[in-house]
Design goal:
alpha+beta; 30% strand
Length: 329
């Protein structure tokens, strides 16, 4: 049996339990079970606004999930009317109805709000696809993880911005508001990136990995028109089979204000960041891009990237009543 509890905030013990569960799932699946956005909410006492945490605790035979018996976790966030969720089940407690219980609770929350509900599954694993199909979710969005070697890969061409554009590194505080404006314009149609607030930016600047020397901005006549924010992971979250998990770079986000940059600015910014990551001695670099972003996918492939993994977003097409009536495996 499983007991489910919604929490607006987490205690320190809750965070420890969730982090241990995530580590066990990542070790078993070879992929991170939740996104960076969710991991940034795993802070004791942090209130999420409209977001909530859902903890699944085993009421019997739960010792393998830790002393407090956490067997599953889900996060429900997003904005009013549009829910974004992620869920994970401890590897030792799968195929016992925990995933069904978590997903059903998410659909019930969406049905009572009411709101659109989309759930991310990382790694495009068969078990997630099966659960989604059984509970009335449709596969609606695919996020590619692309990778490129740096040390042994093809040589990087120089970063040559269009005429009238200069590149420099980001200055926290001074550039924050200008960057948020460009980010919102560049990703106006993106369901997550374009909605970043100053709080979202500030939380990431407080992370240990943040380094303004790897954050490049493009200016025209003193106005910010584009950017490339890089990131370095101390440990590769998904190392190739048979290889040690060393550090890896990331093209964290690249954006250009529509109509303000000039042809080739996105490519120049990407190359500036790749050159920086190469100069840090990294062997390879990863990035995430939507499958249907044809222009960006073509540019990255032309720069030597290739598909490594896929994450999938499932949209709930059923109803809370239908979910409750489904048998639990």
């Amino acid at each position: 049996m499983t007991s489910l509890t919604w929490r607006p905030t987490l205690s320190g013990a809750d965070v420890d339990d969730i982090e241990n569960l995530l580590a066990a799932a990542e070790h078993a699946d070879g992929t991170g079970p939740v996104s960076e956005d969710v991991r940034l909410t795993l802070r004791p006492g942090l209130r999420l606004g409209t977001g909530r945490h859902l903890l699944a605790v085993g009421t019997a035979d739960a010792p393998a999930a830790g002393p407090r018996g956490l067997v599953g976790y889900a996060h429900l966030g997003g904005v009013p009317g549009e829910g974004q969720a992620e869920l994970v089940v401890h590897p030792d407690h799968r195929r016992r109805g925990v995933g069904t219980a978590l997903a059903t609770a998410l659909t019930e929350a969406a049905g009572s709000a009411p709101m659109r509900l989309d759930v991310w599954a990382h790694g495009d694993l068969p078990a997630a696809a099966s659960l989604a199909d059984r509970l009335g979710f449709a596969r609606t969005r695919v996020l590619f993880q692309l990778r490129r070697p740096l040390a042994a890969g093809p040589a990087l061409p120089p970063a040559e911005p269009p005429a009238g554009i200069t590149l420099r590194t980001y200055q926290p505080g001074r550039d924050d508001e200008a960057w948020l404006a460009v980010n919102a314009a560049a990703f106006a149609d993106h369901p997550e990136q374009g909605r970043w607030t100053l709080d979202d930016l500030t939380r990431r600047q407080a992370e240990p990995w943040f380094d303004p020397k790897g954050f490049f901005v493009a200016e025209r006549d003193g106005h910010l028109v584009g950017f490339h924010w890089t990131k370095i992971h101390e440990v590769d979250p998904m190392p190739p089979a048979g290889r040690p998990a060393g550090p890896i770079g990331e093209v964290y986000v690249v954006g250009v204000r529509p109509g303000a940059g000039g042809a080739g600015l996105g490519r120049a910014l990407t190359l500036a960041g790749l050159g920086h990551l190469r100069d840090q001695g990294l062997d390879s670099v990863l990035l995430y891009v939507d499958e249907d972003n044809d222009r960006a996918v073509r540019m990255y492939c032309a720069l030597g990237f290739s598909t490594y993994t896929r994450d999938v977003s499932y949209h709930w097409t059923g109803s809370a009543e239908q979910s409750r009536s489904d048998p639990t495996p």
